[in-house]
Amino acid sequence: MTCLWVTKKDFWDHGLLSQGIPIKQLSPAQRWGLLIYNTADAGVYPANVYANRYYYYWNGTQWVDIGLTTILKNYLANRVYSLNSKSTQEFTYTTINNTSNTNGGIPVTFADTDMVVSIGNIVTKAAEVFTINITGLYEISAYVNYNPNRTTMNAGQRGAFLNLKLQRSLDNGKTWSDVIGNRTAWGIKVTNYLKTVLMVSTPVSLTAGNKIRLVVQNPFPVTDQTVVHGEETGTPLPAITTSAKIPISKSLTFTLLDYDLQ
Question: Rounded to whole angstroms, how far apart are CA atoms 198 and 184?
């Protein structure tokens, strides 16, 4: 049996038990906080311990597997923040076709009620901006179901393209820079059909206080009439939307993979 005597500040390695004092002879006050690694099965349920498996501490009544403590559970549990939206987000011809500049894009919006999972308080949402609460390595994924709604084919029409990107701000939202992203293309005769634009799961190191947002972007300028979205006049408008058989229009998920214990 390997034993540690626990104080309020730290561990005293090989404490009272290393002096040859059996556990049974320790007073209740001396047992409190005793941490052991047991090398033999012993005791009767629920006060039993297993050999070579866990660390246990004495809570005043029984030996408790340290892996079952609430604090440790919270550290080991998956920390996830995820949103699913069913709402439609439309863009005008002018706005979506004037986003091709470096770090350009239009924020993808989510309502507070779109949040479906929030474990571990890793993200705080304010409108379309997400503030990182814990420094660490994150895995981030997203998608939007998007329709360019380009029904008129100009001469030389090449289809349509959309970038879905994650952007970060280090100055409280004043300026934004691209972090990760993916691009999806529509063929010449399918620019008025819904298609899913994916941002695949990607590891990203983020620092507490970073501002994050999801944006969509036409990577080509409005002067390139072969790849514009929507109609110059009238409707339909380019849009992130659902369809009869696709119930979610847009989604964003943060998963905290690794972080320093604070």
Answer: 8
Whether residue 219 contacts residue 100, with contact meaning beta carbons closer than 8 Å, is answered with yes
Domain 78-259: assigned CATH number: 2.60.120.40
Instruction: Kindly state the helix (H) or strand (E) to which residue 145 belongs, with its residue range.
Output: strand 136-147
Average confidence score pLDDT of the chain? 85
Q: How many CB atoms lie within 10 A of CB 8?
A: 5
204 is written with which tokens?
A: 């990203």
Please choose, from the candidates 82, 178, 84, 85, the residue with its C-alpha nearest in 3D space to the C-alpha of residue 122: 82
Which residues are CB-neighbours of 96 under 8 A, at least 6 positions away? 106, 216, 218, 229, 230, 238
Residue 105 class from Cβ within 10 Å (0-12 exposed, 13-18 middle, 19+ buried)? Answer: buried
Q: Which residue has the tokens 């036409």?
A: 218
* 108: exposed, middle or buried (Cβ count in 10 Å: 0-12, 13-18, 19+): buried
pLDDT computed for residue 36 by the predictor: 73
With a cut of 60, say whether residue 149 has pLDDT above it: yes
How confident is residue 80, by pLDDT bands cut at 50, 70 and 90? very high
Domain boundary assignment for the chain:
2-74, 78-259
Dig out the tokens for 108 from the structure: 């993808």
- In the block, residue with structure tokens 């920390």: 79
